[in-house]
Amino acid sequence: MALPVKIQADLESLLLMTFIPFRAPATITMEKIHTKLFELASPYLDTRGNREHTRIAYEFAARLLDEEEGDPCVVFPAIILHDVGWKRIPEELQSSAYGPGSNDLALNRVHEVEGAKIAGQILLEVHYPLHFVREITEIILGHDSRKQAISASDAVVKDADKLWRYTDHALRAFAERFGMTTQQSIDRLTPVVDQWFLTASGRRMAAEQLLRHESDWGICQGNKKAG
Ligand SMILES: [Fe+2]
Ligand SMILES: [Fe+2]
After folding, report:
1. CB 34 within 8 A of CB 76
2. For residue 87, which ligand has an atom nearest its CA?
3. Which ligand is nearest to the CA of 160?
4. Distance (Å, rounded) from C-alpha 146 to C-alpha 124?
5. Do residues 67 and 85 touch, judged by C-beta distance below 8 A?
6. Ligand with the closest atom to the CA of 108
7. Would you give per-residue pLDDT tens digits along the chain (227 residues)?
8. How far does the centroid of ligand 2 lie from the alpha carbon of residue 53, in Å?
């Protein structure tokens, strides 16, 4: 028998306060939660091409979770919100804080710290369970600077984020922001696969992306010769 709405709400508040996981009502699907989080993150992702970057990283997270350990209740909110902190860094300074070459690590750190704060606020706004909020903000706080994963969910988030670098969208971004040719990007991305990726699936997906770029490149070279 379904509980009256007020009692159900009170129970969920109580469980939140005592950090015991609650089961979301069946009408609230995972998809609806993700849509809401994307909506709330949207104003913060309106910089550095982060809306597209986040969508792509989200797709990779879904693929990784088909094969790797990791809690979807942690991984998806973490990947949706991981880069919201870039909004706190002036656009003219952003390109010095990431990408090829030496980066301003202190500035990069700002996007992690501010991102964790904003993500926490957003998750509290949607009444996300507090024990998940802690885990998600901890992951966001070290998603770039911490090289090792603190959990299986963290490893999936880190790999999903980095897999974006191997996509067409990233290669175009590297060309626009840093003047890199496709070949220069491939030469940069190829030797670091084992160093960057923490899961076997992440390494395999990165290698698959590289192979795809190389075959595209090969076709273009072939056409050039034929012409
Ligand atoms: Fe980031
Ligand atoms: Fe990212």
Report:
1. yes
2. 1
3. 2
4. 25
5. no
6. 1
7. 444 444 444 434 433 443 444 445 545 788 999 999 999 999 999 999 999 999 999 999 999 999 999 999 999 999 999 999 999 999 999 888 888 877 899 999 999 999 999 999 999 999 999 999 999 999 999 999 999 999 999 999 999 999 999 999 999 999 999 999 999 999 999 999 999 999 999 999 999 999 998 777 665 555 443 33
8. 7
Q: Does domain 29-226 have CATH number 1.10.3210.10?
A: yes
Alpha-carbon distance of 79 to 58, in angstroms, equals 6
Q: Which ligand ends up closest to the CA of 112?
A: 1
Domain ranges of the chain: 29-226
User: How far is ligand 1, taken at its centre, from the CA of residue 74, in Å?
Assistant: 17
Structure tokens at 27: 């009408």
| Residue count (the chain) | 227
> How many Å lie between the centroid of ligand 1 and the Cα of residue 82?
6
Q: For residue 78, what are its two tokens?
A: 């973490």
CA of 227 to the centre of ligand 2 (A): 40
